[in-house]
């Protein structure tokens, strides 16, 4: 009888190990792209940009997971008109499965509340971290892009998301304080001179006109080149639009509530630029995937946080 139980236990261990190996292999083969959206200061519309881009990319057939990566003031659920009952901390603790945490926003867009769960990943041992990675591999299978709405400012947490992601979008406005703080982010990231596939790109939000947006972007780029020796690329702009504020007050996504608005049209142009950029560089720009992203993230900010 004991021999039978021993054989059954051995078979169970083999099945579990085979499953883990299959999960790891799928994680290595996956090509989920990670994009961090950040800003030098609050109030520049960064979260609205992240949500609108997610919807616009979904319209182009991309499957999106939108991660609320603000370690202090996570509020994407409010802007999206939903209520987040669970967050990443419940996945880390093992009390909830991934499908219980993800909130479907529409057919190709799901919200992943992060918040405190991202900090808790810093304290996991290797075995627990491996378990979380295996749970997150499901994201590789159900999404093409992980878009992260980070916090504002130049503290280590925000910068770590930008450094770990395949691409970082730096959102600014024409206001002098916003321009100054955007330059501060660029300086903290080393001038925007990223390794291939780890790009930093400028988005000018709430612009009065196309010309104003270009002037703001050029001012930031020229200062970066002069004092830092390199500069981020300019992706595009979003015009100031009262429909955005009205949508926020109504807890609606402006891109869906006002699809013909000037701001929504600008987001579509930004999306087109992003897709052309990605599709034109598949060979030399490696997409590292979700596992690599979280490993880089924990080794930078979270390692320092523990120390």
**Distance between termini?**
51 Å
Alpha-beta classification: alpha/beta
Global morphology = globular
Kindly provide the name of the CATH class of the largest domain.
Answer: Alpha Beta
| CATH architecture verdict of the largest domain | 3-Layer(aba) Sandwich
* CATH fold-level label of the largest domain: Rossmann fold
Unreliable sequence segments: 26-30
* Count of individual beta strands: 8
Strand order of the largest sheet: 3-4-2-5-1-6-7-8
Give the rounded overall mean pLDDT.
83
Number of helices: 14
User: What's the CATH H-level homologous superfamily of the largest domain?
Assistant: P-loop containing nucleotide triphosphate hydrolases
Q: How much helix is in the residues?
A: 40-55%
| CA radius of gyration | 20 Å
Beta-strand percent range:
15-25%
Listing every helix as H and every strand as E from the N terminus to the C terminus, the arrangement reads HEHEHHHEEHHEHEHEHEHHHH
Number of domains: 2
Explain how this protein is built.
The chain has 307 residues and is α/β, with parallel strands linked by helices. It has two domains: 1-30; 31-306, P-loop containing nucleotide triphosphate hydrolases (Rossmann fold), CATH 3.40.50. Helix content is 54%, strand content 17%. The chain has an eight-stranded mixed β-sheet, with helices on both faces. α10 (210-228) links the parallel β7 (199-207) and β8. α7 (126-142) runs antiparallel to α14 (289-306), α8 packs antiparallel against α14 (289-306) and α9 packs parallel to α10 (210-228). It starts with a helix and ends with a helix.
């Amino acid at each position: 009888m004991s021999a039978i139980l021993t054989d059954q236990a051995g078979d169970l261990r083999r099945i579990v190990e085979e499953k883990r190996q299959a999960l790891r292999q799928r994680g290595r083969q996956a090509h989920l792209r990670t994009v961090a959206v950040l800003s030098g200061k609050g109030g520049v519309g960064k979260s609205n940009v992240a949500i609108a881009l997610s919807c616009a990319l979904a319209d182009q057939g991309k499957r999106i997971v939108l991660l609320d990566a603000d370690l202090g003031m996570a509020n994407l659920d409010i802007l999206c008109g939903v209520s987040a009952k669970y967050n990443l901390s419940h996945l880390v603790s093992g009390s909830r499965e991934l499908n219980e945490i993800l909130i479907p926003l529409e057919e190709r867009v799901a919200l992943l509340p992060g918040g405190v769960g991202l900090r808790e990943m810093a304290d996991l041992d290797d075995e627990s971290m491996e378990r979380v990675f295996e749970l997150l591999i499901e994201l590789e299978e159900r999404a093409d892009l992980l878009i992260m709405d980070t916090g504002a400012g130049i503290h280590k947490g925000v910068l770590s998301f930008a450094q770990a992601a395949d691409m970082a979008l730096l959102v600014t406005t024409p206001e002098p304080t916003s321009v100054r703080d955007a330059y501060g982010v660029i300086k903290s990231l080393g001038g925007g001179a990223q390794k291939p596939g780890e790009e930093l790109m400028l988005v000018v939000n709430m612009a009065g006109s196309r010309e104003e947006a270009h002037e703001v972007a050029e001012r930031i780029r020229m200062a970066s080149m002069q004092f830092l020796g390199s500069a981020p690329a300019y992706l595009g702009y979003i015009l100031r639009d009262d429909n955005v504020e009205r949508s926020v007050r109504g807890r609606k996504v402006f891109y869906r509530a006002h699809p013909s608005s000037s701001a929504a049209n600008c987001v579509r142009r930004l999306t087109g630029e992003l897709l052309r950029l990605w599709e034109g560089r598949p060979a030399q720009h490696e997409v590292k995937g979700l596992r690599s992203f979280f490993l880089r993230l924990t080794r930078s900010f979270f390692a320092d946080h523990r120390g």
